[in-house]
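Chain X:
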Amino acid sequence: MSEQEELMDTILNVDLEIVETVRTLQQENWNTEELKNQVTDLLKIHDELVGKMRSLQGDDHSCDCGHDHN
């Protein structure tokens, strides 16, 4: 598995964790400060991973999905 594929896999796992945490927050009526902080931390990790992946791609922002990810 290439470094880019590993990053994409890690991003997917972080995204899934974000979704699960948000679902838990919704079930608890958004009253859990710890979970809110966890979402914030996970979003930061996600953004860092996406930035790292983009730096590996250089100026090529395509991922063959047909969308421009600039």
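Chain Y:
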Amino acid sequence: MQDIQHSSIPAAALRRPRRNGFAKRGWIALGVALAVVFSLAGGFGVYANTLPTVVTLNVQDGEKDVRTDAQLVFRFSRPVALTTVESAMTVSPATEGTLRAVVGQTEFQWSSTTFLKELTTYTVTVNSISDLGRHPVKASQWFFTTTIQPRVLSVTVPGGVALADGAEIDPATQLQINFNDPMDQASVSVALGTKLAKLKWSADNRSATIPTSGIPSGPLELQVAAGARDQTGHPMVGAFSLKTGIYYHDREHTTALKFPALIQIPNDVFARDQNGLQGASMVFEYVAEGGITRLTAIYQNAPNLVGPMRSSRFISLKIARHYKGLLFQSGESQATRSRAAGDPVPQFFDTTGYTFRTGVRVAPDNLMISGAAVRRAESLFGISAFTIPKARPSLAGGAAIKKIAVPDHYSVYSYDGTYGTYLKTEESHLYRDASTKQPLRIEMLIILHTQVYLLDVGDGHGAHIHDYDLDSSGRVDIYYKGHKFAGTWSSAGAHKPLAFKLAGGQALSLPPGLVWIDVTT
């Protein structure tokens, strides 16, 4: 029998090959798994879509020491219309505020129009509503209590009147700074300008007075530095500042006018002291005749009494045209009347029922007019409304000069740093306003240099008429707050106000108060 020989081929090679069934079964399993996942996800999505929309607040329910300037932020889990939130939200105690969307239609911010009340429990409610997808938003409510937050309530002057930012005060006015809470004195630092102020505290530590004596006239800023605390340690949020200014103000009663009243006022020795000069917006002084000066006082607001009144001059007509007003005078010479006819100027003369002669002055320097009569006289004329532009100038540099002489007018002006004004003496006589009994205080002095003509025409009293060029341009010397500035004047037309500029070309604004202009060579 022949031996059976075993094959040398490995046994594995003799087996029947297996089909790759794993891949097929794996894909089937994966598909089943994904189907389950998507089924679950879809089920969860369906479930989540049935949940109400949630609203949260940035303030925790029951939170304490919430700042009085806090803003409430509402966050919704789905978009909601702003108008819907506005109608559903309430704050109690009732507080005015505004709501605005800050992130799409899911986040809204409510801000109170004023500070919230201190140490007060507030209730914030959002009533049941629906979002944009018509999902319900369950009603929600939160409670919180505000803290005491020290702050400056006001800065007041004597009499309790609060100063607004930009308001002005008189020289040496005592200020009082008022807090809403007793303050830790050592932590409160107040500066007036660049210097620390000395505070005198009230017994309850809620207010402190601040003297301003010795502070020069001009802009002033009051600042309370950050870091101030109340007596329980609560910090004041940030710093506080108030912009004000120290300036002289004429506090007498005046009558407002629709357009300027230009009143001719004599300046001879028998006319001084005149009534109503302090209330003028501008005064032009010029030589009339025989070395005697005359004044054209321009009023935007007329004092109770102005005078005496005398006649006009050629220059008066020019000033009246430039400043678009009504020229008040006792009368005028034939020469002046003829000159006025060439370019008519509205004029008002001595008229019964408007002007009157006073017994306390000697004629002819005794013709007077009241502020009310000035306004009544203006009502007789159809002159357009006009206001002389006034604004505090911001001047830098300049030469420090405290005394100024104007030889042509026998005048000397001296600067009073306490009031920030100039005092006027003429022939050694210190000018006062006869109504206020106080020295005349000039806010700005301008010496206007121009061509002067001595005309071969009589004024009716035997003297030759002076005429002045106010319709071209020239140089000026400007004196303000104890300093001298060089500049120019110019006329853009006979019926437009004179324009003043500094030497560098910067337009010069005329300050509120009395501006005195000496017209000379």
